[in-house]
Amino acid sequence: MIRERLRPIFAKERRPLLMGHLALALALVPIPMIRTGWAESGAFMALFAFQAPPWIGLGILAAGVLFSFPLVPLFLAWSLPGAARPGLPRRSIGLLCLLVAIHPLRYYFEGVFHRIGIRAEAASLSEKYPVVWLIKHLDSPLLLGLVVWAILQHQTMGAQGKLWFQWALFVCVLCAAFAPFDSQFGFLFMPLFE
User: Of 46, 108, 142, 164, whose CB count within 10 A is highest?
Assistant: First the structure.
């Protein structure tokens, strides 16, 4: 039963499409680590080991990849069914509407799980280095672009367009999911922004 359902997905003529889905699914893996600051903490500890050996930083990066790796099969299960049919699937339109509806709440809950001192430092960092604020809020214009794209091409979008649309939709989902935990982003690499 499962084999019969998977056979058309892995057919020879669809392998380039499958490879594109797999490549973009792997590109989702570092996003949670970047949003939460784990990536910069791990890279900082691995490259500039002052009080701890570099393997601790590499361990943090490996743990982050292990934590984020379930995104690969989740994205493939979301985007592969019906990938060759024209038009956006209803599940993608529904998820986009849900993201638009909850997006204002993101600003309300931003940093709510951190104490006031950390939130104040994150706000001053964003004010001093606008690129940090831009990276943290990059999903807002991306979400607006997805809404316009869905309105214009929701019935005629091709396979490649759907792939990129669903990948950008997953990026917005990850940004919304990790927005309350991203107050540590940008602290360790502030000199790079100067």
Answer: 46
**How many whole angstroms separate alpha carbon 46 and alpha carbon 161?**
38
Per the CB < 8 A criterion, the answer to whether 47 and 58 are in contact is: no
Distance, in Å, from the CA atom of 69 to the CA atom of 76, rounded to the nearest integer, reads 12
C-alpha 98 chain-centroid distance: 16
Residue with tokens 């691995």: 46
DSSP 8-state symbol, 152: H
Number of H helices, E strands in the chain: 11, 0
Give per-residue pLDDT as tens, 111-157: 566 667 766 777 777 777 777 777 777 888 999 999 999 999 888 88
The answer to whether the beta carbons of residues 18 and 10 sit under 8 Å apart is: yes
Angle at 169 between CA 164 and CA 171, to 5 degrees: 95
Mean pLDDT of 31-38: 81
